[in-house]
Structures are given as structure tokens and as C-alpha cells.
């Protein structure tokens, strides 16, 4: 009797385990076809009996909404549940918002709404991806594995994940010397996640709660929580050397670092005089040195925040997108490129992307390539004149695209002023820039002109919708 009772208990526990087991919907693959069409699929798993897709193009969708694109599949094909609609017209840059519903072991499951951006149109005859495909790739991931075409990093900012991102706290210096300090919450409320977006918004240091000092006479101590060992975390105002007048935010991927891949960042850029965003790839281990851009920086895309910024008759305000590779502070602008828009880049969200291979780095915005950097001669550094410091011997030890041949991390942030982003002969709204880049009083002169620039900070935040990195 005891044995039978024990058996019944085991069976009951087994049934409870079976009924409460959580099923996870497999990854959804979406292919945009040419000249028209969409193909959506998931891998087959035992117990699946229904696959339903609901989607909208460039329009949001909620759970249980009926999409403009919809399909119901009751049978798998060659190991996948595949829905196709060859009448849907898609273009590069379109955003497909969708959710899927499946029935597994007679129970229904709905995958939360998600989105994917169309990066290319594929030939309809291209094979359906299989669940176990892991093609070879040039992409390398620190402490990880990459499969050709697969996403190796994705951040949708449903909340602020401090296990993924390091929120920086330090006072930056060379080579840019921006007029900011980077501080973490709760020291300063500059970094937050709101409505599924990352928001980085600069503030006046004097207005930060708990700051009881003076910009011109006080002390700023950031040692508690300092994240840098190469720059300072404490400053004292003395004479013309004031405290950083702006407190801002900066995030860097903490554990994720990679070599070669496709990065996409959907963001809305800040607008306001003397502000500029940092959307960067930066060297993880600083293989070629830590100063003077020695290990390379990729500026994925940015626009200076001034509405009317000019040098002579040449304008380069918030309607001018610029970016490129930085390898040398002296010849900083040698490999920077730009693209003009009829509207400020901060008026709307745009997808800024970089495709990084062993041979070339290309920048795109909303699916349109606008800058390309390839090694000429023996290496990338051959594109610099002999007078530039980039001709140092350290780069001779790397590949022809050195220093862009090592693991890099993703950095997001905002800076203000500094000694590199704004030429000395620049004017903003017809008024001369208030500081000289070579002056010891640069930050002080910027601060003394606060009445002119603070009123322009009507949308000073960098707002990021998502970040993805895909293997080549």
C-alpha cells in the first residue's frame, strides 16, 4: 500500500511539473524579400500545432491587435513554420512591429511585441534559415561565440541593466577636455530609462541636489563610485580653473566587447548650443595606447547641437551629421566625414549604423551609406600626412586596418564644449564662440556665457531606442 501511495504521489508531481512547465517561443526570423514580399518563420519543435503572425510596418502594434500583415500556419515545412506574403512592399529602413502566437501542447503562448528594422531585401529563392545554422564569421566576441548573421548583442532599454552597462563617473581630460563631469545616479539624475528609451540628459552642476559648493571656488569629489583609473575623480576650483560646469552621463558596455560586425543604434540626438553626442566604438584593452586616440575611436554619428553654427560661410550646425575614425588628436579631422540634412538630426529618431570588417569601416544612416574608410597602401594610417602623430611605430604591429583590429566596446553619452569639437573661429547665431581652445580660461569663458547658451537647451537629451550588434 505504501508503495502504491508513493507511486501515486510521484505521478501527481510529474503531472504538476508537466502542466506548469514553461514553454519559450523560439526566435522569430523575418526576411524582407525583393521585389516584394515578407517571409516569417520559427523552427519546429515537438508539440507545436499553430503559428500566427501579426505585424505592422512603421506603425506600433499591441498584443491581440490585428496587423496589416497577418498569417496563420498549421503545418511545418522542412523543419520550420513558415508564413509568406509576396504582396507586401518593404523598403530598407522600414520597421516591422510584430507579435506571434503559437499553440504548443494544446496551450496558447504569445510573444511580447517586438520590432525589426529592414536592413536588406533578400532573394525569394534564398533558403530558410535553420535552427542549427552557425555559419563561419569574421566576427569575434570576447568570452563568447558568434554565428554568421546572428545578433550577438541587443539592448531595448526596458530597464537600465547595470550588469550590461557601466554608468561612468569621472572627470574626463585629454584629448578633448570637455567641460563636463560624468556622474552616476544618485549623484546626479543624468541617466534614466523612460518608456523603453535610454535618456542621457546634461544638467548644470550648480543645480544638482546636494552640491553645496561653487563652480568657481568649490570642490567636486567623485571618488565614491569613480569608474576610471586613468583620469581624475576629484577637482578643486582655483583661479581660472573652475569645476566642470556641466554634469552629464556616459555608458559603456561592461562585459560585451567584439571585433568586426554590424552595429545599429536608433537614437534622437541632443539639441542645444555647444552640446554634442558620443555614439562611439572604443577600444576595450587599449592595445595601441590609452592617450591621443592611439587605440582608435569610431564616431558612429553625431551632430553638434547649435542651430546656427558656422565658420565663415560654412555652416555645420545641428543639420550636419558627422562621423568617422579617430586615430590622432593633432590631425583629428583627417578621417571625419559629414552629411547634410534639410532638418536638424535631433528632430527625429534615426538609425545610425557602422559595418566593421577587417578591410573597411562603413557608416550608414537609415540604411543609406554615407562614409567609408578603407586601408590604402599598406595600412589605414597611410591616409594621414607625415606630420601626424599617427605614424608611430606601434601601429606597424597590427593589421592594415590597425588600430581597428581588436575588441571594441559601445559607448553612449553627451559632452559639452571642450577643445576639439568647435573651431576657434566658429560663430553661433552670428555670435563668436566664447572661449579659445588653447586658453587656460576656456571652461571659465564658456561658463561666463551661460546666459547665451542655456536658453537654447530645449531638447538637450540623447535618447536611444535600441542598440543591436550582428555578426558578419
UniProtKB/TrEMBL annotation:
Family: Belongs to the insect beta-1,3-glucan binding protein family.
InterPro entries for the chain: Beta-glucanase-like (IPR000757), BGBP_N (IPR031756), BGBP_N_sf (IPR043030), ConA-like_dom_sf (IPR013320), GH16_GRP_C (IPR035806), Glycosyl_Hydrlase_16 (IPR050546)
CDD domains from the UniProt entry: GH16_beta_GRP
PANTHER family xref list: GLYCOSYL HYDROLASE-RELATED (PTHR10963), GRAM-NEGATIVE BACTERIA-BINDING PROTEIN 1-RELATED (PTHR10963:SF60)
Record bears the keyword Signal: yes
Key word Cytoplasm present: no
Name of the protein described by the UniProt record: Beta-1,3-glucan-binding protein-like isoform X2
Keywords carried by this UniProt record: Glycoprotein, Immunity, Innate immunity, Signal
Organism from which the protein derives: Bicyclus anynana (Squinting bush brown butterfly)
The organism's taxonomic lineage, starting at the top: Eukaryota, Metazoa, Ecdysozoa, Arthropoda, Hexapoda
Domain of life of the source: Eukaryota
SUPFAM superfamilies with a match to the protein in the record: Concanavalin A-like lectins/glucanases
Domain CBM39: 23-123
Every GH16 domain range: 163-472
Secretion signal span: 1-21
Amino acid at each position: 500500500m505504501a508503495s502504491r501511495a508513493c507511486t501515486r504521489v510521484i505521478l501527481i508531481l510529474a503531472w504538476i511539473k508537466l502542466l506548469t512547465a514553461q514553454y519559450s517561443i523560439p526566435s522569430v526570423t523575418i526576411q524582407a524579400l525583393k521585389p516584394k514580399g515578407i517571409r516569417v518563420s520559427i523552427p519546429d519543435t515537438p508539440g507545436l500545432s499553430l503559428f500566427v503572425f501579426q505585424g505592422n510596418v512603421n506603425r506600433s502594434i499591441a498584443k491581440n491587435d490585428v496587423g496589416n500583415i497577418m498569417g496563420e500556419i498549421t503545418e511545418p515545412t522542412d523543419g520550420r513554420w513558415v508564413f509568406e506574403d509576396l504582396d507586401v512592399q518593404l523598403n530598407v529602413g522600414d520597421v516591422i512591429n510584430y507579435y506571434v502566437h503559437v499553440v504548443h501542447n494544446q496551450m496558447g503562448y504569445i510573444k511580447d511585441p517586438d520590432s525589426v528594422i529592414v536592413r536588406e531585401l533578400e532573394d525569394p529563392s534564398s533558403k530558410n534559415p535553420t535552427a542549427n545554422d552557425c555559419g563561419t564569421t569574421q566576427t569575434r566576441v570576447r568570452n563568447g561565440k558568434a554565428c554568421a548573421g546572428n545578433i550577438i548583442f541587443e539592448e531595448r532599454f526596458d530597464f537600465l541593466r547595470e550588469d550590461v552597462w557601466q554608468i561612468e563617473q569621472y572627470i574626463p581630460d585629454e584629448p578633448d577636455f570637455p567641460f563636463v563631469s560624468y556622474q552616476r545616479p544618485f549623484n546626479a539624475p543624468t541617466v534614466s530609462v523612460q518608456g523603453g528609451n535610454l535618456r542621457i540628459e546634461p544638467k548644470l552642476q550648480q543645480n544638482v541636489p546636494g552640491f553645496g559648493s561653487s563652480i568657481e571656488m568649490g570642490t567636486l569629489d567623485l571618488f565614491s563610485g569613480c569608474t576610471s583609473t586613468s583620469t581624475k575623480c576629484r577637482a578643486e576650483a582655483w583661479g581660472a580653473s573652475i569645476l566642470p560646469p556641466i554634469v552629464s552621463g556616459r555608458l559603456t558596455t561592461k562585459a560585451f566587447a567584439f571585433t568586426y560586425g554590424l552595429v545599429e543604434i536608433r537614437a534622437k540626438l541632443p539639441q542645444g548650443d555647444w552640446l554634442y553626442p558620443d555614439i562611439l566604438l572604443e577600444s576595450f584593452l587599449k592595445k595601441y595606447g590609452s592617450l591621443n586616440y592611439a587605440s582608435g575611436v569610431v564616431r558612429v554619428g553625431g551632430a553638434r547641437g547649435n542651430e546656427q553654427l558656422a565658420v565663415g560661410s560654412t555652416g555645420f550646425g545641428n543639420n550636419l551629421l558627422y562621423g568617422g575614425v579617430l586615430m590622432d588628436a593633432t590631425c583629428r579631422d583627417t578621417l571625419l566625414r559629414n552629411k547634410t540634412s534639410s532638418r536638424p538630426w535631433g528632430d527625429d529618431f534615426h538609425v545610425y549604423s557602422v559595418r566593421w570588417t577587417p578591410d573597411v569601416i562603413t557608416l550608414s544612416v537609415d540604411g543609406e551609406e554615407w562614409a567609408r574608410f578603407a586601408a590604402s597602401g599598406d595600412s589605414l594610417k597611410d591616409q594621414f600626412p607625415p606630420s601626424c602623430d599617427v605614424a608611430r611605430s606601434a601601429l606597424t604591429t597590427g593589421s592594415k586596418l590597425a588600430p581597428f583590429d581588436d575588441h571594441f566596446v559601445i559607448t553612449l553619452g553627451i559632452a559639452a564644449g571642450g577643445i576639439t569639437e568647435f573651431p576657434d573661429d566658429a560663430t553661433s547665431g552670428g555670435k563668436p564662440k566664447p572661449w579659445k581652445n588653447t586658453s587656460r580660461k576656456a571652461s571659465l569663458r564658456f561658463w561666463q556665457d551661460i546666459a547665451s547658451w542655456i536658453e537654447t537647451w530645449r531638447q538637450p537629451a540623447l535618447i536611444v531606442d535600441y542598440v543591436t550588434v550582428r555578426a558578419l
